[in-house]
Amino acid sequence: MQKYTLDNGITVFSQKESHVNSINIGVFIQSGSAFENEENNGVSHFIEHLIFKTGNNQKNYSEILSELGVKYGGFTAKEYTCYYFRFTSFNFKTIIDTLIEIFRSFKYINEEQFSIEKNIIRSELQMYRNNFKEINQSRSIELSFPNQSLALEIVGTDKSFVNEHTISAHHFQINPAYHLK
To answer: What is the pLDDT of residues 28-40, one digit of tens each?
Structure first.
């Protein structure tokens, strides 16, 4: 495994496997509920949902990545958000350029997709409220870290449900990928 630090401060780990013709990339961004407050709680998770859906010139990156054969996804934790990608080396340059564009152009939010994702997250929120394990885990964390951002829910709450302004302000405040050169 090799470690590189780019000029913009982003750390990259790589490992060459000569017997495999695929590439796996994980982008970890210091963005999670631990860096939020009661007003913007859930914004990191919301950005994770939106990042592949909107972009410059209203491109749908989800469709573009699928057309290029990229398997991808993301998840949000308390202290980071991860975006992961797996693809063959066939279209390497095109795929890397697309990934860079995704993280650079996030400021262009498609209102229709915003509304769709908002409803999806509301459904997730309801699902967590009906899951005994999730309720117990959330309550345990809340009791362990009272009055701290670590106690906040990753998906947010009905009270903190984000809007476009909250997303833009949060994303550009903490997202190092915005500063890619």
So the answer is: 888 899 999 888 8
